[in-house]
Structure of RNA-binding S4 domain-containing protein:
Amino acid sequence: MKVDRLGVLCARLGLCSRNEAVRYARLGQILVEGQPAQSAAVLVASDAAIELSPRAKRMQAQKVTLMLHKPMHYASCRAAPGVPLARKLLVPENRARSCRTRHDPRQLSKLDAADVLDVASSGMLLFSQDGRVATCVSRDPQLEKEYRIVTAGEASSSQVRALQLGLQAICSQAQVDLEKGYVPRAQKAKAAQDALPKPEDNKPEVKPDEFSIIRVTISGIVTSTILREVCAQAGILIYSFSRLRIGGICLGDLPTGEWTVVSCVDELLLSYRTHSEQGKVAFWTFCW
């Protein structure tokens, strides 16, 4: 008979995270074969009937997950001196207009970033009180993440192929698509010239019609920093880098610097797997 610690089994069954199992067990809210367990460290048969009490289920269901459209130059966690934390943007003033809840993130305890999105990247960053979300986003090898990479200079087919091969070597699945004929909006109208990066931003100067846009979908434990390194090895010079999707949660048209509450996390993220097309919905359809 295989046995394991109760906290590990709770995380494996998707009931709660290991840290949450410790707290629930202290409160007697984890039932093993119908009886409350006294500790998350006890050894339990792997095929034992384990469930949360009704009270613990309500506590778990009340936990909040937020999605922030992180701008560049903000750190997701552990910021270097002089670098602001993305968490500072989680204030009522930055709530998306389509978000119908009135949560104040400053009053939500144990609201942590689910993973790391490097300072030079923008896009989706999840914050959650639910420990399962962080475990899924940072450790699930089958969870899909989609990125949008705008290159400085046209990316050749050989570079795209090299990127594909490089990602396949470190990911369980990788798909790289090159979008043709992309011209930045800033190049279409003279009025948008002021929005172009200034020289002090240390970005390469890019001329019209010298952009390529690459969509990268990966499944695996790969951070944005590693993805940047693979792009560099393929000879791709990055102009901008953003994350569009995690599992079934899509960034959609959420404005930069704003946040919203994500509902249906179980269906959109925790139960999401690579080949499942269910749950890929637009941003506005799952905001409360």
Q: What stands out?
A: The chain is about 20% helix and 25% strand. Residues 3-61 form a domain with the Structural Genomics Hypothetical 15.5 Kd Protein In mrcA-pckA Intergenic Region; Chain A fold (CATH 3.10.290.10). The chain has two domains: 3-61, 65-285. Residues 184 and 211 are 8 Å apart (CA to CA).
